[in-house]
Amino acid sequence: ARVSRAIEQLRIMSDVVPTDLTLEAEFWRGEVLRRYGQHALANAVFQRTESTLWNSVRHPYYRFGIATSIGLTAMVRGDSTQADRWLKLRLAERRSAGRANHPYVANDYRFLAENLIMAGRFEEAERQLAAAPSIDSIHVSKFNPARYQNLIAESRARLHLERGDPQRALDTLPSRAFEKQDGEANFGLFTAPALIRGEALCHMGRHLAGLELIEFSLAQLDGDHDEQHPAVARLKAALASCAWRAGQTQKAREMADQAER
Fold first, then answer.
1. Distance in angstroms (rounded) separating the CA atoms of residues 244 and 241
2. Are 242 and 207 in contact (CB under 8 A)?
């Protein structure tokens, strides 16, 4: 119902705003669809509008938003090539706005690496993370300034884990990752420290300890997370695998079923 109301409001806007703004209103209709998990419909809207809108908009702030919407939609849909292209444009707009070392740039590199890692493009992901700049400190965020600096290390830890080196993944995680903290999973599903540590422990035979951390990460999911995001399915699959190894076969079956949906 909320999706329908939001889309209807944008349609009304399209009827009353000048013609040159109609295309932008249509694009943001796609963004509403994306945020509510309707990625196929959002992608269709973006395909109709992206080229013309991108060439007509010049302000870095709006171009950043366009690149973010299209890039994240492509990543969720498993189109790593399209996602890589638009996420790089997102980073370019951040740089053009004079924020190449702003703490938030860590999220740009995290998204780029996350997309490539999930696609099995490990060498490219490694190059992206190696290119990440030093992050300036900031004191206007609700998160600790060091949190942004840790995002790159956590992405590297995920890369090591996906390459089959759980010990190196643990060694790469910042020290804070050894503590469960409310909200940490919300910073990034795929690179949440508790999840990486939990998966690594499972791979190393410490199944019960690993299972506890993976379950903690799953419990952190809330309405802001898209159930269709591939990282959600991977999280549930990791829990199923660890539960099976820990002898909790019923839980393993339930999570495996959810991961396949």
1. 5
2. yes
Positions of the chain with pLDDT under 50 = 18-19, 177-180, 182-186, 223
- In the chain, the largest separation of any two C-alpha atoms, in whole Å, equals 63
Helices 122-130 & 145-162, crossing angle to 10 degrees?
Answer: 160
Q: What is the structure's pLDDT at 19?
A: 47
Token representation of residue 258: 């959810």
The model's pLDDT over 192-243, given as tens digits with 9 standing for 90+, comes to: 888 899 999 999 999 999 999 988 888 876 545 566 677 777 888 888 999 9
d(CA 127, CA 108): 14
pLDDT at residue 114, as a whole number: 93
Tokens of 170: 């643990």
pTM of the model: 0.80
Torsion-angle region of 256 (φ positive above 0: left; ψ -120 to 50: alpha; else: beta): alpha
Whole-angstrom distance, CA of residue 123 vs CA of residue 153: 16
Tokens for 106, please give them: 């860590």
| CA 248 remoteness from chain centre | 29
Task: Give the separation between CA 240 and CA 256, rounded to whole angstroms.
Answer: 5
Count Cβ atoms below 10 Å from residue 198 Cβ, excluding itself: 28
Q: What are phi and psi of 59, to 5 degrees?
A: -70, 130
Name residues whose C-beta falls within 8 Å of residue 225's C-beta, 6 or more positions apart in sequence.
186, 189, 232
In single-letter form, the type of residue at position 61 comes to Y
